[in-house]
Amino acid sequence: MSGINIKAFFKFCRVKVAKQVVETAEKVVKVTVVPDKRYKPVCHKCNRAADKIHSYRERTVRDLNIFDAKTFIRVVYRVVRCNRCGDVVEDTELVHPYMRVTKRLANYILELCRFMSLKEVAGHLGLDWKTVKEIHKRHLLDKFYGEDIGKPRFLAVDEISLKKRHRYLTVVVDWESGRVLWVGEGRRYETLKEFFASLNDEQRQSIEAIAMDMWDPYIKAVRECCPGARIVFDQFHVVQAFSKVIDKVRNEEYRKADEEGKELMKGSKYLLLKNKDNLREEEVPRLRAILEANKAITTVYILKDYLKKLWHYKYPGSARKFLDYWCCLAMQSKIRHVMAFAKTLKRYAYGIINHCKYPLHTSRLEGINNKIKVIKRRAYGFHDIEYFSLVIKNAFAVTN
Ligand SMILES: [Zn+2]
Fold first, then answer.
1. Are residues 293 and 337 in the same domain?
2. DSSP symbols for 109-128
3. 3-state secondary structure labels for all residues of 41-102
4. What is the pLDDT of residue 400?
5. Cα 79 to ligand 1 centre (Å)
């Protein structure tokens, strides 16, 4: 037995310590707390004193560790008969009803969740990760419940793939504040429609432009639900689409190449997709060698660089001219994937030209996309889409 009296750590006015045991060998502290009968029990829902006690119950919860000993508290509590709420659990101050940990441990867990993954927090405290997730999720649900998104003028819509499951999420961002306003499962017309349905008329009318991918279901949803908003295809998404073309061409060329050519191209995927300014010094000669050896790859590489220029134009007329010129070069390449892309680009030209009036810059979307990728790496618990959505919202919440 330890000589330390831990009553000082239980200064809650509705419970008192009835028993405390330290099991030194197991490094476990067991405490029993019971209602302090000098005080009337209080309903946990409405916080009013209740006169009648319905029954006594007990359950064991984890508390903060005492030194390196895990602390378990057996809480004896009452179900009271509240005039307003019926038969409900009393508020012990120490524990939230239904939680497996004390309030102070829950707060500590929430603090850790800001910097660590669920798995890390659970490992650190010797808790089940599902318990940690439940606490975090409950906190986030509270935080975002009934949240007012105001009247955003510019939106960005993006999709996130959850690769393992071939599932997608649609993320709607307030362009100006960078705040994630909404996350929904799927990337269908109905998905985005659901977001618009959550807005009132005034909010829908306040939206001037929406940046997004050249993705027909989203386009249809905007046209139908928010006809006043202009659709903008931003550089990030369009160049991303063209990157897939580069990849296809590279694969085809790889298959056609001889041994030497294959060796040269091996692992060059990211080299070709990388932004020119981000190339490391040693990558430059390698890229040059690949481009010198292969005409088709050179062509797509130049076209990619050129394509980005489209978003530099301020006047719709000039942008249109450049777009036509680019498509003309693409057709001359005679590379079928590139030609197909040019046709797509023409079909969606209106959204690219809209960029002149609504220059929703690409860097913000790219930043959001990258941040979500980082969150995704802490994948624990994210098969719960609702929880994952809350974590995303939280990461982009405007703190003030
Ligand atoms: Zn009540």
1. yes
2. HHHHHTTS-HHHHHHHHT--
3. CEECCCCCECCEEEEEEEEEEEEEEECCEEEEEEEEEEEEEECCCEEEEECCCCECCCCCEE
4. 38
5. 11
Do 284 and 335 lie in one domain? The reply is yes
Domain count, the chain: 4
Per-residue model confidence as pLDDT tens digits over 333-344: 999 999 999 999
Please check whether residues 281 and 172 belong to one and the same domain: no
How many angstroms does the Cα of residue 47 sit away from the middle of ligand 1? 6
For residues 310-333, average pLDDT = 95
CA of 45 relative to ligand 1 center, distance in Å: 5
**Do 176 and 37 have their domain in common?**
no
Ligand 1 centre distance from Cα of residue 76 (Å): 19
User: In terms of domains, do 277 and 333 share one?
Assistant: yes
CA atoms within 13 A on the CB side of 87: 7
Q: How far, in Å, from the CA of 50 to the mean position of ligand 1?
A: 8
Q: Which of 81, 115, 145 is the last residue of a domain?
A: 145
How much is the pTM? 0.81
Q: What is the pLDDT of residues 74-133, one digit of tens each?
A: 999 999 999 999 999 999 999 988 889 999 999 999 999 998 999 999 999 999 999 999
